Amino acid sequence: MNKIKLDKDEQEILESFERGEWKSVKNVKEEILKHQQYARNTLKKDKRVNIRCIVTAARPGRHMQIPTW
Questions:
Q1: Any idea what the Cα angle at residue 51 is, between residues 47 and 52, rounded to 5°?
Q2: 60 CB-side CA count, 13 A
Q3: Which band of pLDDT confidence, cut at 50, 70 and 90, is reported for residue 16?
Q4: What count of Cα atoms within 13 Å lies in the side-chain half-sphere of residue 48?
């Protein structure tokens, strides 16, 4: 039987589980759905756009210039 090689973090999680430090939640299905939605929202492309304009003070006789990128 092959033993799975775990990295440091995975080994710590396994040892914590084996010591009985993990507790079940009451509504497992509800928690799963909630965290699935968190993941969807995290991966969803954000459609908001930030537009920043730098406006320099105009001197008399000059027009204000807005940079174009």
A1: 150
A2: 0
A3: very high
A4: 1
Taking the model in full, what pTM does it have? 0.42
Ramachandran region, residue 47 (left: φ > 0; alpha: ψ -120 to 50; beta: rest): alpha
Please give the C-alpha separations between residue 14 and each of 3, 24, 26, 41, 51, in angstroms, as whole numbers.
14, 16, 22, 29, 47
CA dihedral 27→31→32→38, nearest 10 degrees, is 170
- Dihedral (C-alpha) 55, 56, 60, 63: value to the nearest 10 degrees? -40
Tokens 């033993």 appear where? 3
Q: What are the residues whose beta carbons fall under 8 Å from the beta carbon of 18, sequence distance 6 or more?
A: none
CA angle in degrees (0–180, nearest 5) for 27-29-30:
65
